[in-house]
Design goal:
Elements lengths: L3 E7 L13 E6 L2 E5 L5 H8 L8 E3 L5 H4 L2 H10 L6 E4 L5 H8 L10 E3 L6 E5 L4 E6 L7 E6 L3 E4 L1 H6 L5 H9 L1 E2 L2 E2 L4 E4 L3 E5 L6 H7 L4 E5 L7 H7 L4 H11 L3 E5 L9 H9 L5 E4 L5 E3 L4
Parallel strand pairs: 3-4, 4-5, 5-6, 14-15, 15-16, 16-17
Antiparallel strand pairs: 1-2, 1-18, 2-3, 7-8, 8-9, 9-14, 10-13, 11-12
Helix pairs in contact: 9-10
Length: about 300
């Protein structure tokens, strides 16, 4: 059975707290796993969340600030220690190549797994698989940063009333789905488009075109909300978003499930982030991320 869910490994910005680890987010997409922004402590959080190195197929780093990348060294070494039987691909800003190399080879270890480096230098598709297309869009932060978007190919939804109108039943249903036509009746005549699921991941950034492009029509948007709205000047100065700004992006983009994360240690009431997000007019599903929580991607 396919599983599409977000496993939250850490939710703190800049420094970990007693209750929040550095960043780390695993997207389970059917039988594949994409790890986003492994901050310090990610390897231990994976253990606590029941995530194994074998679950990882891709690693996507938005930028090379420590709270988003210091866990790379441990995660990469764990992939090799556990002898993951499939290749793993790492995406990260090309301008940070030297940081990636330092983290990949931070200490001595035996390399047993093929780790493909696929740095990001421009907006656009990074990978196309049967299950999804992975895209990147540049964000606005003091260091080069990219957000990521996972898009499932559109499919077809069979409509029973149209099948019945054409007298198609039993094994013939499978045949028309497989072959696209049956006795002159096309698949399009007995079905409708089922839009593929869309997942977006937006970390440290000011408001910019890339944020809106990533969020557009997303079924789930995981987005930083480092600051509350009263500290909007701090957010802008440091290249971050407020809860209200993030929620307004989700509102305008038609996001179905909004996940706010990356919270500054200056705040001790997570409920205030939800209040400000609702005040901004977002009325879809809303989660205030907590370490080790699991959030299903909304079905289509």
């Amino acid at each position: 059975m396919s599983v599409r869910e977000l496993v939250v490994l850490g939710t703190a910005s800049q420094v970990p707290t007693r209750h929040r680890n550095h960043n780390g987010y695993l997207l389970r997409w059917d039988g594949q796993g994409i790890l986003f922004d492994p901050g310090e402590g990610t390897q231990r959080q994976m253990l606590r969340a029941g995530v194994a190195a074998h679950d990882l197929d891709r690693i996507c780093v938005t930028h090379f600030h420590g709270d988003h990348s210091l866990g790379l060294a441990g995660v990469i070494q764990r992939i090799n220690l556990d002898q993951v039987p499939h290749p793993v691909t790492a995406h990260y800003p090309a301008s940070g190549q030297h940081f990636f190399e330092r983290l990949r080879y931070a200490t001595a270890y035996r390399e047993t797994v093929k780790l493909t480096e696929a740095p990001v230098a421009a907006d656009g598709p990074l990978a196309v698989t049967e299950a999804y297309t992975l895209d990147a869009h540049k964000l606005s932060h003091p260091v080069e940063s990219y957000g990521y978007r996972v898009t499932e190919p559109d499919g077809r939804r069979i409509l029973p009333e149209r099948l019945a109108a054409h007298g198609i039943k039993g094994p013939d249903v499978g045949r028309i789905q497989r072959d696209g036509v049956l006795d002159g009746v096309t698949l399009e005549e007995v079905s409708e488009v089922r839009r593929g699921q869309r997942f977006a991941f937006v970390m440290d950034t000011r408001l910019c075109d890339g944020v809106h492009a990533l969020a557009e029509g997303a079924d789930m948007l995981v987005i930083e909300s480092t600051f509350l709205d009263e500290d909007v000047r701090l957010a802008t100065d440091h290249g971050h978003l407020t809860a209200g700004q993030a929620a307004a992006v989700a509102r305008d983009a038609g996001v179905r499930h909004l996940v706010l994360t990356h919270f500054s240690q200056r705040y001790d009431d997570p409920a205030e982030f939800e209040r400000q997000a609702r005040a901004a007019g977002f009325d879809g599903e809303l989660s205030i991320a907590q370490d080790l929580m699991r959030v299903p991607v909304p079905k289509r």
